[in-house]
Structure formats: C-alpha cells, structure tokens
Write a structure and sequence with these properties.
By secondary structure, the protein is mainly beta. The chain folds into three domains: 175 residues, Cadherins (Immunoglobulin-like, Sandwich), CATH 2.60.40; 116 residues, Cadherins (Immunoglobulin-like), CATH 2.60.40.60; 153 residues, Immunoglobulin-like. 1% of the residues lie in helices and 35% in strands. It contains one helix and 32 strands. Strands 5, 7, 8, 11 and 12 form a five-stranded mixed beta sheet that branches. The longest helix has 5 residues. The chain is elongated, with a radius of gyration of 47 Å. The termini are far apart. The N terminus is likely disordered.
C-alpha cells in the first residue's frame, strides 16, 4: 500500500471511521483504488484472486477476502446457508481480537440504481455472529427481486462498546430463476393475471363431410409460453375430450400447437367437440402444465335454402305512423316472420337471418317483426293507400336465400285533411219580396279523408 502522505502506525490506528471502497477489477489484473478517509487520501493496491479481493484495514478487523457474487435459486428454502467463507482478521489480542459478524442495513440509494435489486437486510441473516454464515431469512422471488446487496460488518468485541472497531464488505447475491410457474396460453384480448390468461378458450369449425387439414383457430392460434425465464419448450397434446372419438378426427402438433383435421366428420356423428388442450413444459424435474378449452363446431352441409313464412299475408298501420311502428294483422297482432332450414336440427344454433324487402317503406326487426321504415306514409289520394312487396330471408354465412314471400300492407285513414270548398262564381239575384226563401246557389266541399261528409 502506498500513500500520498506518509503515515505513522499511530496515525493509521487513529482512523477510527476508515471506509474501505471495494473496486471491481479485471480478472488477473491489479487495480489502484483511491479511498477517501476524511483526513487524508490513501491509495490501496487491491490484488484480485478468482472472485475475491484482498484488502486490509488498520487497527480494526479486516476481511482478507471479498466474494464478488453469489448465485442462489429463488426456490432455496428459508434457513439454507448460502455462504460460509466470511472471515475477518484482527491483530489485537484477547477480546479485542475476537470478531463477530452481522448484516447492516444498506444505504437506500445504493439499491435503487438497478431494476429488480434490493438491500439484502432482513432477507438474509447471520444467525450466529461468531461463525459468519449467511442464511436465507425470507422466501426469495426471482420475478420481483433478482439481486440483493448485503452489507456485512465485522466488529471486534472490545469491552467498551465505544472502543469497538469494525470493517465492512459487500456480498452480492444474484437470484437464479427456478421452475416454479406453470406455462400459460396467450392471445390478445384474454383476461390475464400476472401475464397469464385466465380460463383460456379457443374455437374452430369444420363443414360436415369435408376434410380441411389445418384448421383456423379463434381468437388466435394455440400458443403457450413458459412464464419463468428458463423459457422451457412447450409440448402440446389433447388431455381429454367429448365425444370420446375426438382423436379419430383431430390432432394437435406437439411442437407448434397447430390444429389439424385428419378425417371428415358428419353431423350424425357429432355436432360439436369439446376438447381440453394441454401445454406442458419440457424440462427436468416436475413437468408443469396448463390447460385450455377448445370447441370445434361441425357445420351442416347447406343442401337446402331457408324457408320464410309470416303470421299473416296482410297487415294494417295508420298513415303517418312514426318509424318503428309495428304493422298489425286484422286481429291487432304484430305481423311476424319465421325462417326454417331443413339442414338444421332443433338442437343446432340458428343463424341470424338477414331480411331483404322490395320496398324501403317497411323493415323487419331483429326479432322478426314488420315495422314502418319511412315517415309520412300517406293513404290519401293520389297515394295508393296500400303497399304490395316481397320479403326474402338470407343466411349470412352461405348467402343462401329463401323464395320470396308476398305481403300487402294497408294504410288506415287518419283525419289529417281539412274540407276544401270549390270556387263559387258570381251570381245575380232579382230584388223583390224577401218574404219567401229562395235558392241562391249550391255550395259543395270535398275532403280527402275516408268516409262520408258529415252533412
């Protein structure tokens, strides 16, 4: 050790609060480190052995070796000893030369520089101060903290505690990930917790009697990942399914998760397959896995067009009715439509048929009821007062359409017109005796509303 200012041994012993700065060095080389003592500057020549540093402290216990790093799996149980080689030397005699070890709380700023790092105070412990063995005091979690910095203090045991001298060093503990998390299926839009999709579900469909090969899966292709940083490969398989013959028709690639149809299936065999997909980590030790639900629908062959029918062929509605007013039959019931398809059984899901009309004045609602679709529908002449049109039901998936159905809607009269008087030409009358009433002229009025005039 060389000093910028010459020091006597007595001066060296006076540096009661000497701080040792531990410097990283390239393996096999020496590095000069400047340490601020508060009274003078001292240059320490730190000689490095493999993952250890040699340094000395004047007048207090010194650590002859400093371990640069320790790596522990985060599955290491509480109470496990992770480091046994802490050793400090004190040249004093008697109790002044006895050394005990403990972990001190580090500076708050010292562990905030790196992400996922923390002070190791409280997470690790030295249960027996005279031995200096570092043990795990709390459960380690790699996903939260990956590096701990332990400030280890070596103190002599001078009878007067005010006279006790100490030295510090830092032990870096790197937490290694362990295989403690199940894999997870992932796709956009899923409900997730800590990066894992909750109750993942997939679906696909095949037409009856056809062989498609690779199937399109919704919402995305089947894919699972290892949530640990170990990033183990995933093996896919079918865990179970209903009906029990699902494996005769479908298979999943164990490496890619690609879903394939291997045999044509008919609706007489099954209309839907419910399969549990298993994603398992390929790793030593316990085989962690997760599952997802897969529904495969068998769609019937579209051999028959839909057939449309209505509750009545004639309907009635008041003229000038607002948009959305229901058209009623002669008994006051709404005109409604029903569509059937011979390709579908009673248990098959019914498609949402699209109803197309040859008039813009009316429309069919989602629940199949005929309603007014235009304002100011007029019954009075010269308007015809009734509408004849046709309705077609179309299946959205196949675009198959029914035969057209004819309907007639009559507009009921509403008293919305005032009587109109015709122009009366000038007349001349002879002056004379007014004792008797005489007809001068005949005045007439007309009304476009339905029904006789009230006079």
């Amino acid at each position: 050790m060389a000093a910028r200012n010459s020091l006597t041994p007595q001066q060296g012993l006076g540096f009661f609060g000497l701080l040792i700065l531990l410097c990283s060095a390239v393996l096999g080389k020496s590095q000069m480190c400047e340490v601020e003592t508060g009274q003078t500057n001292i240059i320490l020549d730190i000689e490095e052995s493999r993952e250890s540093y040699v340094f000395k402290r004047i007048g207090s216990p010194s650590h002859p070796h400093r371990i640069k790093e320790r790596k522990e799996k985060h599955s290491t149980p509480v109470g496990t000893t992770i480091f046994r080689n802490i050793q400090a030397l004190d040249k004093d005699a008697g109790v002044n030369g006895l050394v005990e070890y403990f972990i001190a709380e580090g500076s708050p700023n010292s562990t905030n520089v790196e992400k996922y790092s923390a002070d190791g105070y409280g997470t690790f412990a030295i249960s027996f101060p005279h031995q200096g063995q570092v043990t795990v005091a709390k459960t380690l979690d790699f996903e939260k903290i990956q590096t701990y910095y332990l400030t280890i203090v070596a103190s002599d045991r001078a009878r007067n505690t005010a006279d006790r001298l100490s030295s510090t060093t830092t032990l870096t503990v790197n937490i290694a990930d362990s295989n403690d998390l199940d894999p997870s299926f992932i796709y956009s839009g899923c409900v997730s917790l800590d990066g894992a999709c909750i109750n993942p579900e997939y679906s696909a469909s095949v037409p009856a009697g056809s062989l498609l090969g690779v199937l399109t899966v919704l919402p995305e292709r089947i894919q699972a990942v290892d949530l640990d940083t170990i990033n183990s490969p995933i093996r896919y398989s079918f865990a179970s399914g209903m009906p029990g013959n699902y494996a005769d028709y479908f298979q999943i690639d164990e490496s890619t998760g690609v879903l394939k149809q291997t045999k044509a299936v008919d609706t007489s065999t099954a209309k839907k397959y419910d399969i549990i997909v298993k994603a398992e980590e390929v790793s030593p030790g316990p085989q962690r896995f997760t599952t997802a639900k897969l529904e495969i629908f068998v769609k019937p062959v579209d051999a028959n067009p839909p057939v449309i029918s209505s509750s009545q062929a004639e309907g009635y509605v008041d003229e000038n009715s607002p948009i959305g007013t229901r058209v009623l039959d002669a008994h006051g019931n709404p005109i409604s439509f029903m569509t059937t398809d011979a390709d579908l059984s009673d248990s098959d899901p019914k498609p949402d048929y699209i109803y197309e009309l040859t008039t813009p004045s009316f429309n069919v609602t989602g629940d199949g009821v005929l309603v007014v679709n235009e304002e100011n529908l007029d019954r009075d002449p010269p308007a015809p007062g009734r509408f004849k049109f046709q309705v077609v039901a179309r299946e959205p998936r196949t675009n198959a359409a029914s035969a057209p159905l004819s309907l007639t809607v009559h507009l009921r009269d509403v008293n919305d017109n005032a009587p109109k008087l015709a122009m009366v030409a000038p007349i001349s009358i002879t002056a004379g005796d007014q004792s008797e009433s005489r007809l001068v002229t005949q005045v007439t009025a007309t009304d476009n509303d339905e029904g006789p005039m009230p006079w």
